[in-house]
Amino acid sequence: MARIREALAGGGKLICYITAGYPTPELSVEHALACVDGGADVLELGVPFSDPVADGKVIQYTSQKALENGTTPHRVFDLAREIRSHTDVPIVLMGYYNPIFQIGEGRYVELSAQSGVDGLIVPDLPCEESLSLRQRCAAGGLDLVQLVGPTTSAERMRRIAAASSGFLYVVSSLGTTGARNALPVGAAAVVRRARAAAGDLPVGVGFGISRREHAAAMHQEGAHAAIVGSAILQGMIDGASPEETRRLVSGLKG
Amino acid sequence: MTKDRTRFGQYGGQYVPEILMPALEELEREYGKARKDPGFRQELGEYMRNYGGRPTPLYFARRLTEKCGGAKIYLKREDLCHGGAHKFNNVMGQALLCKRMGKSRIIAETGAGQHGTATAMAAAVLGLRAEIYMGSEDIARQEMNVFRMKLMGAKVHPVDSGSRTLKDALNEAFRDWAASVESTYYMLGTAAGPHPYPAMVRDFQSVIGREARRQLLNREGKLPDLLVACVGGGSNAIGTFHPFLGDKDVAFLGAEAAGEGLSTGRHSASISGGRVGVLHGCKSYLLQDADGMISETHSVAAGLDYPGVGPEHSLLKDIGRAEYVGVTDREALYAFRTLSEVEGIIPALESSHAVYAGMQRAKEMSKDQVVVITVSGRGDKDLDTVIGLMGAR
Fold first, then answer.
1. Domain at A3-253: CATH architecture
2. Catalytic residues of B
3. Nearest to B236 by CA among B292, B176, B189
4. Which of A26, B11, B228, B339 has the least C-beta neighbours within 10 A?
5. Residue B94 near residue B185, CB atoms below 8 Å
6. Residue of A59, A98, A131 to mutate when probing chain B, most B C-beta within 10 A
7. Predicted TM-score (pTM) of this structure
8. 3-state helix, strand, coil in chain B (%, to 5)
9. Is some CB atom of chain A closer than 8 A to the CB atom of B392?
10. Where do the domains of chain A lie?
């Protein structure tokens, strides 16, 4: 369970998100490995869902395409296993709750662990709803990463940080996932507040982080890791090869 | 940490991104204060009576009763409510709450356009700004309501993702709210979504059942034997049923949209044809595939064309307090025509599902029994659809 924490220790780290199964299951594995080659410290693998309410246009699009080419949650476990056979970098599955609920929380955790997955992020499962999954993750040796955002009060942040494991995911700004031209206003403030609440739990910040200078600014504010997703996926939508993905990630890492 | 106050049995809850949780807490707190405030209740009552036209009549449908040959059929005439549907009841309550909370912008999703229209109306009368998300498929089949919304000053955002219907409009409204939550009030249109919406919307819609109860007691000196209402998200149904929950002899029947038939997969009957799942903030019966991906739904009635259902209905189904049946497009169209012909009342296609289910049940009941069917809205908005389907000229 300590693998994610250890991978983020010391700061200046990069977490790369890609949608499993986009543009095809096979290519998504190649791009994931390219992220690792480019310097990703943790891989966040998106489990495609039909109704991703926390996501912006890019991840909506890649999720839709991945579903169309047959990327079910069970297929994602296969892809994770494939990635795991090539690298030791921690893998976190980012997926909405309904598919987890359908498979069954316990079974989902078991299948994840068997596939070499280290943790889960469930964007529509706030602290109030996550107790049973948290317990199952703990029992199965997985981290359950909880999220906080700009609207989260200090008291709530402490409570959520205490419930989180692996790292604390800081949503940089209001809105959905997706690249923004400038670093969101207020991102620095929410990172500082999260750091104060997180104690020795690492802090990763995502949503709207798309460039090297954004990541550097977030590291400056005390975030252990910057999380980049839509910028990488946009490159893939525009036809990037795995080698181009590797270069993009390498550029983000600085 | 799961708190029972957010649930109906296992159903309901608050399955939303963290960004929205503080807003739901604030809404719950403010609604709790408002409902106990005599000033709020008085202001709402004033709008209900003099702006909304409440109480709506409970009408004894003599000719429909004769045609069916069984129980007496009464119609609760929500079609006569301002705006042409029960949606007014919820929207007026929430709009006053929004104003009280000091938010000037309202967002809402809409399927048939009835909730969007009602939202536009309430925003206009209270001087608030309204933006409505509507699937582009629904925009095409509900042109008149789109025009009505715009006429009353609302901005309509077409939604082109997914099936381009109500579910996708909700997704977009949630995304907007995640970005605008500090200044924006989300006016959810049915008794579903995350807590406190299911309970709050039910409370505002319960005026239907409270009035019907009083009206029928005056008229017949007894309570009804059966209440019938259509169920999409289920707000008019829960508003009709809820004030009778403690009356064990009053049976509840919810009419879901069976579309082209439950066996075809082309329907929107979440309870009759779905499994328990989580969508748009709540756990409830849900139409989905084996992997938990949300199914595309179908109904001739845009307002029923949604894969989920309010969580309280799921509980009422499980404990056997309410019964839910599927009514097909064809059966709803038959009821649409029948009610128009024998009573001179053109019901909404949504409401026609309830009319059909109520007629069938009344036929099997004795003449001293009473059925109350909630006519949730009027059918003017559906004339284009019906002309297309019936080939009527």
1. Alpha-Beta Barrel (3.20)
2. 87, 109, 376
3. B189
4. A26
5. yes
6. A98
7. 0.96
8. 50, 20, 30
9. no
10. 3-253
